[in-house]
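Appendix B: complex inputs.
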Amino acid sequence: MEAGVATTGGGRSVLERSPLSRLPDKLLRWGLTALAGAILVLIAYFFVKLYIEAKPAFDKFGILGFTFDNNWDVSRNIYGAWPLVVGTLITSAIALVIGVPVAVATAVYIVELCPRRLRQPLSMLVELLAAVPSVVYGLWAVFVVIPKLLPAEKWFAKTFDFIPFIGGGAVAGPNYFIGGLVLAIMILPIVSAISREVITTVPVEQKEAALALGATRWEMIKMAVLPYSRSGITGASMLGLGRAIGETIAVTLVIGNAPQIGHHLFSQGYTLAAVIANEFGEAASTPIHRAALIAAGLVLFVLTLVINAIARAFVLRAERKQGTRIAGGAAA
Amino acid sequence: MTTATLQPISARRRRTDQIARALLLIATLIALVPLALVLYFLIKKGIGTWTWHFFSTDPSGRFFGDPGGIKSAIVGTVLIVALASAIAVPIGIGVALYLVEYGKDSRFANVVRYFVDVLTGVPSIVFGLFIYIVLVLGGVGGNFAGWKGSIALALLMLPVVTRSAEVVLKLVPDSLREAALALGAPRWRVVARVVLPSAASGLVTGSLLAIARAAGETAPLLFTAFAVKATTFDLGGQMNSLPIQIFNDVRQAQDRLVERAWGAALTLVMMVLLLTLVARLIQRRSRFA
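Resulting structure:
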């Protein structure tokens, strides 16, 4: 025995725990690690399973043929998903054009301009937009938005029919624009929440410096706040884009479900997610149709993966700069 | 002595400032318009259907006459979401514990973190497809079943629970952990008796928000739990749920059914808002954050 350390019979320090009592520790540690590892396995399994089930469609039409052929004809069992991809991109683009400016403006207003007392309630109200289920937005859009906006859409299409795509053409009840508008509402909370967190982390010194140089509030926002949070806001918008691309139920109800590429803003269309929700019931009996829909799901999955990966990279860059983890709030 | 007087801000700059501020305010108000409109129409069109009959009968499925109520849908939603939460909340918090207590900044932990983030971005309908392929096509325990819907929802909730739990667990001060360790507590007791209780309210908030989100999801249930009209408490069989009921009623586009859809939607939104509200109230009382 040296230096007054008491030992038990086995030569272990009394301060050391017996191997048996260390067991729960090990169990916890490895159990939790296994759980975390299981997530990775799950995602890999996910991908493999989807691919195997989608393979008949890829074999028959080719991966490129399936994705880029403009021909989705259920009755003849020909599946080229290009009209769906285009529909997905058009509606998501509309959602971003409408949703992102409003979301960022909301974030700037809440963080920089609004009275301190209103900050919490206002951000909570914006986040409540995320609490309304997709199917409820769909219901509301079908029976309220579509009929109420129809006259305005007709006027718009007629007045601006000299602009390609934006104007002209016949106005359908359900159309790309309505789909994009509903998506804009649905991505607003997440884009706004993340932008708000990014804007909150702009150093006070930079803002005060701008003000001390005589800048007005708006000039301060323009010179100090927005440039500093640009990469975070870009990331937030891309996360919104990912959301918009994958959103299913509301879009299914308002897009018109016509498997052609519409040539106008107010034409009917279809999206990848909508086609799955809509045709899966009948497809269960036709293997090639089912494979085609699962392939559509896989294309959707890959599309959102890529977009989210890029978005995370942007948000991560913002985090590094500010040394905090941006959680995305409840809206995420 | 010279007195330096500040140049007053030019009228043009002041006007720009005022216009920009006004625009930001207007945009914020515009963002709130849809929320107000949705709630207004839900209450206006939905409240009329709220009768005892509406909540106590199953959908009749008859083409004419009484369409019936939404009892089976409410029961189904509650059961499916309860099972989904029972799966997703412990696993989600477990993964978050790993990330905060053990993984920290190791490469493996960062990979897990990244893929959890990736999972949050996966569209809900893809989760539905996945469960359809693995459990329905695979023929595990029969055809469509309520519990398969639960697993699809659990997959959807998992990343949300994990992310929010990680944020909350990180807020527990290291000094608390160190104090417990210094007193001789083994790691698992530190986690069970110090870390988890300190973070409890935050964990509950995060989980409730995830549950609220899952309750409103339609897409993952479409081809997993499917739907029957009659009330059932058997998660092993097909099950009705509120979102699916609304979705089907809207697609029928028949006046009586649409009316029921509004009533069901009001019910669903009230449930979700209640959960969200409770979550926020608990968050207010939390010690950190």
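The radius of gyration of chain A is 26 Å.
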